[in-house]
Amino acid sequence: MNTSQGTTGHPPQPRLRLRVSAPAQARLRAGHPWLYSDSIREQNRPGELGELGVVFDRQDRFLAIGLFDPTSPLRLRVLHAGRPQTIDAEWWSRHLEAALQRRESLFDEATDGYRLLNGESDGWPGLVLDRYADTLVLKVYTAAWFAHWPTVRALLGARFPAARLVLRLSRNIQDLAREQFGLHDGMLLQGNVPEGPLLFRESGILFEAEVLRGQKTGFFLDQRHNRRLVEELSAGRRVLNAFSFSGGFSLYAARGGASSVVSLDISAHALASARRNFALNASDARIAACHHQTVQADVFEWLQDANANDPFDLIVLDPPSLAKREDERLQAIRAYERLVEGALRRLNRGGVLLAASCSAHVSPEEFFDAVRRSAARSGRRYTELRTTGHAPDHPATFREAHYLKAIYLEFS
Questions:
Q1: What are the S-adenosylmethionine-dependent methyltransferase domain coordinates in residue numbering (predicted)?
Q2: Cα separation of 324 and 158, whole Å?
Q3: Which helix (H) or strand (E) holds 265?
């Protein structure tokens, strides 16, 4: 089995071999893509950042191969598991095409903004690739990829020769990327610098994407499915889009026939983007007919305002992650409950609440239960319409990947 190391500049060394605990073996065989340092029982030599480490079971049978990181508790990110395969240029090309083919039938010309590679769940651990029209944004979350940088660049350049390619880097690897590899966040890897706002279409609606400096890769592509559902629920309703960011839910609600929409966010920059996105779509009579208002405020405080008497028929609660670490999980669950309690004070009879969470440390079950508890404490009768998870271009193939969840409740 060939396990090529990429371009590291070091002389060949014996293959990095790892043996792991019995529970870790079981997890790898079940398809889990992470191997933690405390699960390693034997290692033939110190490993280098980004080299390919091969995991064997206690009978010396191949289990998996992945990117090794000696500096992280998450010691190996699996590229391939099961039967041994040669990791060479042809393998990398097949690996990319397999992920791209899974998206071929998902979108038409009305949508040119979506995810092409979704990290571990697509077999590209710690790496995301998003499309915004003719621009691709590559976001890297682990420095282990830098050892394979020539391979990744050549692969994407050959597959997408006409696309603009932007690099985004997770904060925790930006210093290393700059000091050792000459890479920086927002770097243009291919193509020309965009001459103004970068625009793309989602379900026929135009949006700006801040690909060089914006959050994530420039937009929240993962909520597309829920935005479409909100459009279906909005006819004739007064809608509140809390934590509105650049107005994604607001625009779908307007196109769905909402009589008015309030975009509520603490960021003036985000609200300005929401107003620009509405202006981009002014030619759509349905959107133009909707009264759109932006309100800059802290959502928690705004919902708790005892003097407010401005009711809504549909409320969207889509906050940023409220638990960035495991030790923030319980605090986040309580915060979700407070948000729902505040929203229900502003929701009319017959109104619908959409509550969403992108906190990976809060499980779907914990989040849904928190929303249901708040709904029950309100004393109001409600019907649970549905729960949702990840869209097809954002697959989640293992437990920790299931960060996105949403629940729809209708109150009588």
A1: 202-376
A2: 36
A3: strand 260-265
pTM value is 0.93
Task: Tell whether the torsion through CA atoms of 297, 365, 392 and 74 is positive or negative.
Answer: positive
Residue 224 has a pLDDT of 97
CA-to-CA separations, 108 to 35, 103, 112, 115, 204, in angstroms, rounded:
38, 11, 8, 14, 10
As a residue count, the chain comes to: 412
What class is the 16-81 domain?
mainly beta
CATH number attached to the domain at 220-411: 3.40.50.150
The CATH number of the structural domain formed by 89-194 is 3.30.750.80
Annotated domain spans of the chain: 16-81, 89-194, 220-411
User: Tokens representing 177?
Assistant: 């990327």
Q: Are strands 238-242 and 312-317 parallel, antiparallel or unpaired?
A: parallel
Encode pLDDT of 315-332 as tens digits: 999 999 999 999 999 999
Handedness of CA 351, 357, 363, 366 (dihedral sign): negative
